[in-house]
From TrEMBL:
<feature type="signal peptide">
    <location>
        <begin position="1"/>
        <end position="25"/>
    </location>
</feature>
<dbReference type="Pfam" id="PF13424">
    <property type="entry name" value="TPR_12"/>
</dbReference>
<dbReference type="InterPro" id="IPR011990">
    <property type="entry name" value="TPR-like_helical_dom_sf"/>
</dbReference>
<feature type="repeat" description="TPR">
    <location>
        <begin position="142"/>
        <end position="175"/>
    </location>
</feature>
<protein>
    <submittedName>
        <fullName>Type IV pilus biogenesis/stability protein PilW</fullName>
    </submittedName>
</protein>
<keyword id="KW-0732">Signal</keyword>
<keyword id="KW-0802">TPR repeat</keyword>
<feature type="repeat" description="TPR">
    <location>
        <begin position="72"/>
        <end position="105"/>
    </location>
</feature>
<dbReference type="InterPro" id="IPR019734">
    <property type="entry name" value="TPR_rpt"/>
</dbReference>
<dbReference type="Pfam" id="PF13181">
    <property type="entry name" value="TPR_8"/>
</dbReference>
<dbReference type="InterPro" id="IPR013360">
    <property type="entry name" value="Pilus_4_PilW"/>
</dbReference>
<feature type="repeat" description="TPR">
    <location>
        <begin position="38"/>
        <end position="71"/>
    </location>
</feature>
Length: 259
């Protein structure tokens, strides 16, 4: 047993040790301690997963299951582990268990949606990601709207995608992904001024060093600069794209545009 597990295990034992009496007050303490223990093992499992130790992660979550096999967070954790291990059937089974036990959890729906998207099941993914955006108190709600927007774009639902990206920006103005996706959506629709407006907002983030250029942002910059007749800026973006992202699909599109 690792030092981390020994320390956590000791703390859990001590938390339970003071709750052995049958009085009503101490029964309440025991119940609270049980919940704390359950959450501690679940979070420990996720910590091991983040460290790449799936074996210890599963061991911690198994301990949580022994305490309460109806705790949704355990199944979310197991699903993430099996996803990493490419045990996709087991991952889906556990994601479904998690959302069935806690259907209001935005993070469980978001994780399940991301899993389905990665599996190419886009309709189902959009449904789960849309559920993740429903909780107004979810701290990553803006990111969920970005995920949903990308999912809609994959399905060719441009208007729904635009709405999702706009919602993301309302929740968090510093959302570079949403700004670039909206730039691209408007550019493809021939709305150059709207595209430029969103790209200018992205450029402000670049100037303030809050974000860095991606292959997507540079290719969009090249296209907008060309449309605005700014050859110098287009050349600057082109050099950066060639230097930073020579293997990207965007650089391939740039080279094709030069033929």
């Amino acid at each position: 047993m690792s030092g981390m597990r020994k320390a956590v295990g000791l703390a859990l034992v001590l938390a339970l040790a003071g709750c052995s009496s049958n009085s009503t007050q101490q029964q309440g303490m025991q119940s609270a301690s049980k919940d704390d223990t359950l959450e501690a093992y679940t979070q420990l499992g996720l910590q091991y997963l983040r460290a790449g130790d799936t074996l210890s992660a599963k061991d911690a979550l198994q301990r949580a299951l022994e305490i309460d096999d109806d705790y949704a967070g355990i199944y979310n954790g197991l699903a993430l582990i099996f996803q990493v291990e490419q045990e996709f059937d087991l991952a889906e089974k556990n994601f479904r268990k998690a959302v069935s036990l806690d259907s209001d959890s935005a993070i469980f729906h978001n994780n399940f949606g991301a899993f389905l998207y990665a599996r190419g099941r886009y309709e189902e993914a959009c449904t789960e990601l849309a559920r993740a955006t429903e909780d107004p108190f979810y701290p990553r709600r803006a990111q969920s709207f970005e995920n949903l927007g990308r999912c809609y774009r994959t399905l060719g639902r441009s208007e729904a995608a635009q709405h999702a990206f706009e919602r993301a920006l309302h929740l968090g103005p510093v959302r570079s992904l949403a700004l670039l996706e909206l730039t691209d959506l408007h550019l493809r629709a021939g709305r150059v001024s709207e595209a430029q407006s969103y790209y200018d907002r992205f450029s402000e983030l670049i100037d303030s060093r809050q974000v860095e250029h991606s292959a997507q942002s540079l290719w969009l910059g090249i296209q907008l600069s060309r449309l605005n007749g700014n050859g110098t800026r287009a050349a600057t973006y082109s050099l950066l794209l060639k230097s930073l992202y020579p293997q990207s699909p965007e650089f391939a599109l740039y080279k094709e545009s030069m033929q």
